[in-house]
Amino acid sequence: MTLAHTLEAMNRRQFLEVAGASAAAGALKAYASAFDDQKRRRVGLIGCGWYGKIDLLRLIQVSPVEVVSLCDVDRNMLAEAAAIVSSRQLSKKKPRTYSDYRQMLAAKDLDIVLIGTPDHWHALPMIEAVRSGLDVYVQKPISVDVNEGKAMLAAARKYGRVVQVGLQRRSTPHLVEAKSQFIDTGKLGKIALVEIYCYYHMRASANPPDTAPPPYLDYEMWTGPAPMRPYNSLVHPRGWRAFMEYGNGIVGDMCVHMFDMTRWMMNLGWPSRIASTGGIFVDKASKANISDTQTATFEFPNLRVIWQHRSWGESADPKYPWGATFYGDKGTLKTSVFSYDFVPLGGGQPVHRDVTYELEQYPEDKTEKDLERHVAPAERYHMENFLHAIDTRTKPVSDIEQGYISTASCILANNSMRLGRTLTWDSQRQLVVDDDEANGMLSRPYRDPWKHPEPQA
User: Fold this and answer.
1) Is residue 2 predicted with pLDDT exceeding 80?
2) Average pLDDT over the chain, rounded to whole?
3) Domains of the chain
4) Residue 425 is inside which H or E element, if any?
5) Beta pairing, strands 273-279 & 293-300
6) Mean pLDDT, range 404-428, rounded to an integer
7) Which of 191, 327, 443, 452 has the most CB atoms in a 10 Å sphere around its CB?
8) Cα-Cα-Cα-Cα dihedral of 200, 236, 369, 137, to 10°?
9) Opening angle at CA 138, ends 171 and 300, nearest 5
10) Phi, psi dihedral angles at 142 (to 5 degrees)
């Protein structure tokens, strides 16, 4: 580790200690210090697009890892990632590059694998990585169908590997504080309703013609187990979220964050009943086939968690276009990636807190292309917690089981909307109660020659 990196790490920890009056400081200090920050871990990345690089570069910031290999089916994206990584990692070495994750894993020279592919490519590489004896950081949502996630959890447990899911709200400093200050202490009182929501205009609205895929993209391998669609410029890069073939729409992309955050804050397990309605009500011209309007209700004992998204119109609260509002009989707590606001009932002092930035400790954040700067600290804490779990062989804060519950619940919401009825979930049997049609939707068909993983894998 260079002197500059050592000083950055020291400054960060000193900052945490100085912030000792904060309710979040104790938990976050543990994230920052309870792992071997001198260990040279060998790392590979599968999926070198937007968030794959963000995840990897945050890991490089907190630990002197050696990025050994990168894998992507887009040659241009792969070359760009290799150049960036060689400029940022301590050794300045350029990683080996692969177009097939199976060849990368077969080299057997890694300790950790990060998976930042589109959602339809999460399950198979993650299962193969843990089978190869590696610890894994996999982006959310963990899967595109329920049984993929079930198989991923089973594989992680069978092979005894640490798997952290990129649900980093659990590692966001101001949200850790909000949980500690207002939910854990009971200052909200009895919480019977949580509204979670997203009003970003994030759904693709264009309608470009289908074309041949670009020569630098292996579109056959990119599609993998998903249904084969004609190539369209909306799909790659980053536009694939507009199509249900590759993910689960805005519910799978954005609801999963806020639903998981709610579960974490309130220590919730599986919902017992899930209902959802919605569709494409406004933007009918785009090629995108995900809903532009959707509501979902997740039922827990004496609690309802209600999701809503609209990719059109105004936000209900312009300060909270994507977030969660906890309604208690003693107060209300609004939370987002940018801030939180606690308002006690019947008077008392409101509390506001903004996101924590670390631009001085990590100056690379100021210039890194496409980085969500407000999320970078949470990403670093999430990586540090992952490394702590690896060193201690314990479950990380966003363990694969938690990712499975949150992901599967969102998938069940989409299935409810498709079926037009409420689904009752038996969490012990991992089945929808008395609904053969709904249970038939727990696995999506895979395109040949790819085989759907089985939970016994």
Assistant:
1) no
2) 93
3) 3-169+374-400 (3.40.50.720), 171-365+403-439 (3.30.360.10)
4) strand 423-426
5) antiparallel
6) 98
7) 191
8) 90
9) 60
10) -70, -20
